[in-house]
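Write out the 3D structure for:
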Amino acid sequence: MAFDRAFLDELNARCDILDVVGRYVQLKKSGGRYFGLCPFHNEKTGSFCVTPERQMFHCFGCGVGGGVLTFIMHAEGLSFPDAVQFMAAQVGMQVPETQADPREAQRRKRLLGLSTEAARFFHRQLWLPENATVAKYFLNRGLSRKTMNNFGLGYAPDSFSSLLNAMAEKGYSKEELLDAGLASRSERGHVYDRFRHRVMFPIIDVRGQVIAFGGRVMDDSKPKYLNSPETSIFHKSRNLFALNLARKTKSDYFILAEGYMDVIALHQAGFDSAVASLGTALTDEQVRLISRHTGKIVISYDADGAGQDAAQRAIDLLKKTDLQVKVLRIPGAKDPDEFIKEKGADAYRKLIERSESDNAYRLESIAAKYDLDEDEERVRFLHEAAGTLAKIDNAVEREVYAGRAAKMAKVTVEAMEIEVKRALSVRRKKQKSDEKRELRAVVSAAQPRDRTLQYQNVRSARAEEGIIRLIFADDSLIDEVAARITPQEFTAQVLQKIFAHALTLHRQGHRVTIASFEGYLEENEMRHLSAVVGGDRVNTANWQQALGDYIATIESCRMKSGTDDSGEDPLLRMSRIHREKDRLGGI
């Protein structure tokens, strides 16, 4: 989607990256930059860097980087056009309607409209007389008609074309149903309904738009659940089931459940802050979504082994934020839905009140694996518990739970603390080793992280990177740089694309900044640009010398390869470059 450059420049001018990122990341100043823990991957040592002078961010760990809009795209799970809308609303700017790509905007609008019509179709099917057994399935699961309507539950008929035909009458094509994930194509090219003979759960985003579906069988056939694939309007990792409802809760906590039915049963029982991930394990992006709406989370996963393993993984992700994490144990039932049916909502509320902190839960889970009346078993418990406690960063919290573990194993607190201290020392040594190895990997990597952007000639590309850094450090140099080298002389396609766009921006009177490339570069290209220019500040005092060295390197590489895309004889070109250097003062 294209936006007027002047509008984007004004928007970026009003959005200070330090203020924006500071709403999501706790930053500490170091020289002219700010560092913190990356919100986009799990880390213990801050490798996430914000450079206010350049209005850019870059993570030296995972490689993500860019300007304000790129940050918001990742933090809020938005497309570039939606990120523009989001930030414009934050600063009170009106997005010029004429600047949007009308075809892309129309396509998105059509897919959202199609998804809404499909949800209405499925919901109507649920209440047809011939589908009474389907409605009875939900009623037998304890759901009221009101709840079924509130969640827009429905039924996909046992047909290969019922939805296709119904949507065709509404003016939607087969290709649009394919794009929306509502239809599939066979090997022979036949298009058919993706969801058949399944009860349907519409997935609705925080804006109240239907973006996808989950379908469940009513018997033991496989697969039990079938979800919409990733589409241009639906990204599993960036959405949560029932978040559109939970965000309105008056509770000071969210309940994280495993499945659609658990969430719906919880809402019906009065727990209107329940949400679930969408057929996949919890993701970093979903954790960020949760943290924007609450400061507390209660994990209420199934009581089986798979559910408890999932809870352990969820704790690791949730603890990256400032969320207060508790874990609910469900006695005598496999899941929240079953427990509420048997014991009632009040009993479940008491479970929430008695829910354990994540550290207590982990200790109890470890203890359950050992017979603590046996000496050898106790030793193994203490060793594993010490390793878990060593992962707690807060010293006071670590000491408290060390005391609890000592009591569980019937040993002295002092003995437990010695074991924890030993495990903590091992952990810190490993952490330092990992950090050094990661730093060496980042520093020594000659190629871009993304293999699709790999350099054909690494030595030349490194010199080309130097030219990019020069013009980003001082874009007033572009005219003189462009007089000595053209984009076509760059060997790396991604760097050629960046340099060419920089020239275009400069000649149109725009600043060359990281922000001016947002919406133009692909995400992987944006990451690479931030990596190239995101290092230490470039000293432009001797730019002529630096540029001369870069061009000489590029020419040397070109001559060795025996090619010259400019069409000029390499020897004559080298002579011309030397004459140009002499003209600029022999530097």
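DSSP finds 25 helices and 16 strands in the chain.
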